Every structure is written in C-alpha cells, then in structure tokens.
Amino acid sequence: MVDLAFLPITFFMLTTSLSKPVAMDIAKPDIDVIDIREPWPASRTMTLLLGTENKIGWYMGETETAKPQLATFSQIRRIILDYKLKVAKANSDHPQRSLNLIVKPLDGSNYKNFVDIMDEINLVNLRSAPAIDDEHITLAERSFF
Fold first, then answer.
1. Mean of all residue pLDDT scores within the chain
2. Which neighbouring-strand residues pair with 46?
C-alpha cells in the first residue's frame, strides 16, 4: 500500500517543472566599436541617478545646467510618464523623437534598486531602450546624494 501511495507522488515530483525565473535582457554597447549616431537632444533626455538608501535623483537636459531632484520609487513612474507625454506633445508625437532615458547607477546604489528602476521603465513602455551609463558620471552627479 505504501508503495502505491509513493508512486504517484514521485511521478508528479519528477514530471512537473518549477517556474523558471524571467530575466530582462540588458545589453551594453561594446566600447571597442565606434557608434556614430546623432547625439540626443537635451530637451528629450532624462537622466536617472540611483543613489544610496533607495534614493533616485533625476533631471532633464544636460548635467551642467540641470538641477537634479529627488524622487522615490513610488513617484518615479509618474514622473517618467509625465515627461514622456510632454516630449510627445512637444514633438507632435513623432515616433523617432520620444523621451530618451539614461540610467546612472552610482557607487552607493545596490542591485535591487537597478532591477526596480528597470521594471519601472519597462512598465512605462518607452519607444526606445534606456541607456545604462556607469562610466561617465560627473562630479556634480556624484555629489548630489
């Protein structure tokens, strides 16, 4: 009797598959390949700074002239959506002139924050993939937090 009880248990244990984790593909460009593209206009570029203690700094435009503002993970999706609509309206909803995002994880940020911000960006459904730049961080960006 015991053998009959364990046969279905072992059968279902061996034939079922556990849920596989879903991963987001992130590809950074090869630094050896020179990519000739037009630079992104400052009016369509938002930079997100991932800092310590789950803080996010963000600004529109160029680093030298912008004043970063603080946001939380619960606020950042609304901020990105608002600027996505503003940029679309300013450019007559042209598909090649949409909002561009640059994500800059700073030294104090952690991996969970990076994954969370990528999830938020994915939910916003931007037309272009975000750029991830952990090498070109200015002194002003580092000193923001």
1. 84
2. 60, 101
What domains appear along the chain, each with residue ranges and CATH number?
41-142 (3.30.420.40)
The angle that helices 111-124 and 73-90 make with each other, rounded to 10 degrees, is 40
SS (H, E, C) the chain: CHHHHHHHHHHHHHHCCCCCCCCCCCCCCCCCCCCCCCCCCHHHEEEEEECCCCCEEEEECCCCCCCCEEECHHHHHHHHHHHHHHHHHHCCCCCCCCCEEEEEECCCCCHHHHHHHHHHHHHHCCCCCCEECCCCCCHHHHCCC
Angle (nearest 5°) at CA 102 between 143 and 63 = 45
pLDDT digits (tens, 9 = 90+) for 130-140: 888 888 888 88
